[in-house]
Write a structure and sequence with these properties.
mainly beta; five-stranded antiparallel β-sheet
Length: 420
Amino acid sequence: MFMNIKLSKILLNSVVISVFVTGCTTSSDMTQEEPMVNSNATQDSATSTIKVDPSLPPLPIEKTGKIEVLPAKYPESWMFVDESSFTSMFGGKVIILDINEPKQSKRIKGTADKNLLGNFAAAKTRPEFYIVESFHSRGSRGPKIDVLAIYDKVTLTPIKEITLEHTRLQSLPRRDAVTLSADEKFLYIANFSPAASFTVVNLDTHEVVGTVGTPGCVLPFPTGKYSVTSICSNGSLLTTILDENGLKSSQQRVAPFFDTDKTPIFERPAYIDNIAYFPSFEGEIHAIDLSAEVATYKGKWSLVTEQEKAAGWRPGGLAIADTDEQGLMYVVMNPNGFDGSQTHGGEQIWVFDVKTQSRIAAIDAPNWAVSVAVTRGKDPLLVVTNGEMNLDIINPKTGELVKTISDFGNITPIIIHKAY
């Protein structure tokens, strides 16, 4: 999948061995027996005896039932790492990682399992995050069940597990396979069986409201208060309007704005002020206003000049774009783009001011760039999934590499999410 990307480290196994010695000494009280008188005797035949010192006090009784907790509001430098475990698709997880923590031993704040390319979303105002995953009765075979697991973000314990009747979208992880309404009352889950639809879950009651069909249109981009916009195979958009109970009220289409054969786009937008910016394969940006009840197309502009386009510059990667709280957009750019290179990643991350539709910086990726994310706050850090499947942390103001984070359980950390 990742051409021009070195995947030299795709599997990490860590084994921690702890040895506890209770009520014993290893000083002068320890004696060793004489070796057996045997020409075939080796050092392996030697044994040791340990004498217990009864004068030592007993160890205190360990208290059980203590649960460590995380803060109700996560720090700005914390991020959710969506570890898909793509080499096996089993044993995936979501890792809560402090990318600004200098000590490796303190970087991981917690994990949650995510099986068979599970989909993930985190609430901003609710103390929850959500994982939609699948299980086969025999592990890798047998009847399949899809479930929504709702986690408490403070204790990391599952609050509720809901069985889903419709087959969820199962693909490479993406940020828009599971989304929330503006007020976070409803959760929207993308389905593909291969019929396209989305399931609505009421987060106040933790119950499934229903499933809405979106023929030929996929993904649930939140729109207005209780609307969902999906992108369609003919280049158009379909907005589904829900009522206060999460039930389908009506559907409206937005006219096609791109040609799926000649000018395809990435279905992975970046968001600023309720505007979704969809990059095209060749470097155009399509702006979709999602603030009202029905989506509105706002036009397009180009990431590249004619000279840059002719030279081969175009977007590429998996999570190819993200934004910061200052309204800047970051896009992975490939200098050697061609038809079919859209997933390959790139050598640079370009920074754009969407208001002026202009590039303000070009940052070199230290070791290729597959995906990009940006932390929250006034002084954000750029987080790049590199070609070795490690994380490069970059100061976007200077373009300097701050550090590279590895050995945190990463196999294929393709998507990084902001944590709230």
